[in-house]
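Q: My labmate handed me this sequence with no annotations at all. I'd like to see what the chain might look like in three dimensions before we decide whether it's worth expressing. Could you predict it?
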Amino acid sequence: QGPLGDSILKSFSRGSANKIVGLIDVIDLGTALVAVGTNWWVANRALDQMSPIFETKGLSPDSRKMDDALEKALDGPGVRFAKRGNTKLAFDENRTVSASYSAQAAIHAPIETRTAAADFVDGRLKLWMATQAPAAAVKAAADAVGIGIDGVTLFPMLAGGSFGRNLDSKIAGQVALIAKQMKRPVQLMWSRAEEMMHDQYRPPAMAKLDAATDRAGRIQALQIKISAPAAAREQSKRVFRHEDEITAMQNSMGEPDIKAVAGADVPYALENFTLDHHPAYVGVPTGNWRSNAHSYNAFFVESFIDELAAKARIEPLSYRMSMMTGQPRLARCLSGVAAMAGWDGGVDGSGMGLACHAMRGGYIAVIVKASRGDSGLDVKRISATVDIGRIIHPDIARQQIEGGIIFGLAMALGSSTAFDTGLPTAKGLRDLSLPRLAEIPEVQIEFIKSEEEPVGVEEIGVPAVAPAIANALFSATGVRFRQLPLFAEAS
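A: Here is what I predict for the chain of 491 residues:
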């Protein structure tokens, strides 16, 4: 497939590919070149040999342009999704502390790339694929081969850890077309490079946070402004309206999206508070990703709270606990993790960092012990206390929290990409700075016993990890990291 945008296949050279044993056919889909072989290795070698050349119009994603768009949106008008008290009066009467943060576009990078199988016989299509949007997949396949949706039988496969990636149904139309032309069952597999190039990314975002603090450093008012694409609206247009990626992006321009600021409506007891979304058009398809906007908003908020505690010269746990009025469950998580991890106050040089988060009725507090290492970051231990209400299956709950914590560690280190001349700079798993098995620290998890209604456990482990690591690095080094991935500026 060509790059993002209106890509047309201009030319390819089939000559040398014809010598590859096992190559069955070559199909020009107009927007993509397909090699059909007896196995994946044959087909992939054939594609390499044919050296396809594409002409792309329209989109040309570029990180500098994205940053400019996010900054421009942040300086422009926003839509207010939360308001409490009178922030203007509080800012007039107190001193102001401000900070800006950013997050790169994040990649799904599931172990299995986009894969589907199909068989088209007598005007009916059988379709095998992992999908989180089965109706959209059936519609895409039916439209591609010109039949009604009643002519498609979908056999849903296990989705595995796709983290929202299987909401994309583009491959359903592609494999249907190939099966119709080949008149035999086929399986289509995207290469890793295609998977990275045609992802529906967790959106890049920027934030500006302003706090009015009294002489003791306590927060009297907090204003949060977040610029990001309307990713949830864009995703819904693809899934429910069956719009293509570019159309969905364009039709979402300027739309406010409450899900873009999810996780930024702080759990702290603040009398004066505002939260605004500043919609931005960044030129790449965006969509769902594990914990969605909570992944970057928790980083923005909990890093800033730590900054305010440091400026006030108040120990970070005490600073947070003083604002826990009306949040007994989150307060219990904070006190619980402090006891479990042996919290030392995050004093200079200790390398301990703290963060907490509330999400969809669940609560978590995380303490990280970390330092700068030879490879950039040495995380020694991650401790978490979690309240997810009544636990139905303790082992599965623990596995989900552990998995979420490792996912959060990967987000802090990488899992993201920049863009240059229309292409993502990350083209393979090796480019994502993912933690290796030997770099996974000790993980301690404690669940709070509760008879409250159970809540989802699959995402709450993610958001608080990155800010806890950033706060630990500040304790260890005195350097404040305000971007995701944490070392993006140095890379």
